[in-house]
Structures are given as C-alpha cells and as structure tokens.
Amino acid sequence: MVLQANQTGNYGPIGVIMVVSALVPFIFLNKTARNKIGFRGSKKWSALALALGVGAAFSFLLYFLGQELYGNSFQNWYEYIGKSYQIPDVISAEDKLFLFSIMASTGMIFSPIGEELFFRGIVHGAFAKSVGEKNASLIDSSAFALTHIAHFGLLHIDGRWYFYSIPTLIWVLGMFVVSLIFFRMKTSSDSLWGPIICHAGFNLGMIYSIFYLL
C-alpha cells in the first residue's frame, strides 16, 4: 500500500492502516494484557521529555548523513520521502508554515501511535516471554526496519521503479537503530508512551528537515 501511495500520491489508505493498528490492542486485548505490553501511563516525565529530544536528534543525524553522502539526489532518503509531500516549488513563508504544521501534526500522531502499539507493543509482547526482552527487541526492530523499505528502497521516479542497494541498506540500518532507541525509551519510561513520543520527535525532525533544510 505504501508503494502504491508513492506511485499515486494518495496516502489516505495508509492513515486508515495507522488508525487500525492503534485500535488493535483495544479490540483483541483486555486491560491486563494492554498493561503487560506497556500501554499504561508514565510519571517519568524526564524520560518522556528525553524521548522527544532523542527522537528529533536522531532524525537530524540521518539528515546530515544523507546530505553528506548523497546531496540532493533521490538516493538521499529524505529527498525521496519529501517528494511525496508535494511541496510547491514557489510557496510563501506563511503557506509553507501552514503546510508544515499539518504534515508535522499528522506525522506526530498517527504513525507513532499506530506503529509503536503494533511493533513495540503487540509484536514485542508476542516474543518477549519466549525469547526475552532484548531478543524480542531485535525481532520487532528488524520487522520495523524491513517494513520501512516501502518508504525508501524501492523508488518510483518519473514512472519507473529503481532500487539503490547501498542507500537502502543505510536507511534500513538507520530504521533498525532508531527502533532499538524506541525500545530503550520504552524501558526508561516504563510505558509505550516513551517510544510513541520518541517516534513523534523523530517524525517532527524528519518533516522539519524536509521542509526547511533540504
């Protein structure tokens, strides 16, 4: 669906998937099970604040790495992802800020909640009891990273599909590392709100980089 959205520019169905992912724990799990996977409140405010900053910092690190290696080519992950935002070449500062606010708001809500409840919640919880917390984190991080090949890896440019192996490998490794960071934020906050907020910070940094740094 993501690949089709990259081709058509229609990302509406992806939003539906994120909403469904967020609803899954409430449909199939009772309150005790949701608490067990980490969906509970956290009073560790400093850990939550740190999570937001760490997520944003890692997104800027990926920005600088992409710029250093690939400049403004589509082999730069943010350049390719940014084309899906359809930012007009000529746009006023006010309109750009308005568009950024919309993209940042949706990017900080839907995918962080949907993906973290699924990967750091459902997927992680399904493996943690049998293989342990650390190994379960490697599994959910691998799944998260490989899934994001759909966002950057198979590139649809000017009506044709391309695959750039080295940039894709770097991107996947980046998604794997940031996924491990999300898990670390879960343990430090003792709640799924840690990775949700960290993921939101990452998305905010990525969207800011696309709008104002590229």
Which helices and strands, and how do they pair?
Blueprint: H1 2-8, H2 12-28, H3 31-36, H4 45-70, H5 77-83, H6 93-131, H7 133-147, E1 154-157, E2 160-163, H8 165-189, H9 193-213
Antiparallel strand pairs: 1-2
Helix pairs in contact: 2-6, 4-8, 4-9, 5-9, 6-7, 6-9, 7-8, 8-9
Protein described:
The chain contains nine helices and two strands, in the order H-H-H-H-H-H-H-E-E-H-H. With 214 residues, it is mainly alpha-helical. A two-stranded antiparallel ribbon has the order 1-2. Strand 1 and strand 2 (160-163) form a beta hairpin. The longest helix has 39 residues, at 93-131. The protein is globular and about 50 Å long. The model has no long low-confidence stretch (mean pLDDT 92).
Provide a short characterization of the protein structure:
The chain is mainly alpha-helical and 214 residues long. It has helices at residues 2-8, 12-28, 31-36, 45-70, 77-83, 93-131, 133-147, 165-189, 193-213; strands spanning 154-157, 160-163. Strands 1-2 form a two-stranded antiparallel sheet.
Mean pLDDT metric: 92
Give the overall shape: globular
Helical fraction: over 70%
**Percent of residues in beta strands?**
under 5%
Span between N and C termini?
A: 26 Å
Structural category is mainly alpha
Which residue ranges are poorly predicted, with pLDDT under 50 across at least 5 consecutive positions?
Answer: none
SSE ordering: HHHHHHHEEHH
Strand order within the widest sheet? Answer: 1-2
Oligomer: single chain
What gyration radius follows from the Cα positions, in whole Å? 17 Å
| Biggest beta sheet summary | 2 strands, antiparallel
Helix count equals 9
* Number of beta strands: 2
